[in-house]
Amino acid sequence: MRERVNRLADELKTELGDDIHGVFYGDFVHADYSVSYLHEGVQESFTPAEIRTLVDVVVDEQIVPHDHDELTHLLGDLDFTIRSFENSTHFLVWNSMENEGVFVGTSSDPTCFTPTVAALHSLVLHD
To answer: Which of 86, 107, 122, 124 can pair with 19 through a Cys bridge, CB separation 3.0 to 4.6 Å?
Structure first.
C-alpha cells in the first residue's frame, strides 16, 4: 500500500500544489497510520499532537458504522467519503475488512474534488 499511497501523494502534489494538505494511510481504528505527505504550511500551523487529534477525530467520524436502510446494498460498496468544511475537505477510502484506509486532506476549493477523486479511484481503489 505504501507505494500506491506515495504515488497518490506525488500525483496530488503535482495536480493541486498548495491545495493538498496531507496524505495519511494505515489502520486508523487503532491509530496505527503513517504520513505519506504533509504540507509545510500545515506543519507550521499545527503541532504534531493537534494534527494527530484532527486526523483521529475526522477519520473516526467517517468510519463509525452508520445504520443504513435495507436498500443501501443496492448502491454497491462504499468506495470513500468526502467531508467538506469551511477551511478544508477530507477524503477517506476505508477497507473495513482490513481495517486500513487512506485519508487525504485538501483545501476547501471545489476544484480539488475532481482530481482527488480521480486519483483515489486510479491509484487506491482500482490499482
So the answer is: 107
Q: Which residue pairs, CB below 8 angstroms and at least 24 apart, start in 58-62?
A: 58/83, 58/90, 58/92, 58/103, 59/28, 59/92, 59/101, 59/103, 60/28, 62/90, 62/92, 62/94
Residue where the block lists cell 491509484: 123
DSSP characters over 17-50? GGGEEEEEEEETTTTEEEEEEE-HHHHHHS-HHH
pLDDT tens per residue, range 96-112: 777 788 999 999 999 99
Among candidates 45, 50, 46, 42, which has minimal Cα distance to 23?
A: 42
Mean of all residue pLDDT scores within the chain: 87
